[in-house]
Amino acid sequence: MITVVYQVACEADAVPSQAQVERWVSAALAGHRGEAEVAVRVVTPAEGRRLNSDYRGRDYATNVLSFPFEAPPGLDEDLPELGDLVICAEVVSGEAAEQGKPPEHHWAHMVVHGTLHLLGYDHMEETEALEMEGAEQKILAGLGIPDPYREEAGASPQA
Question: For the domain that residue 117 is a member of, what is the CATH number?
Answer without folding.
Answer: 3.40.390.30
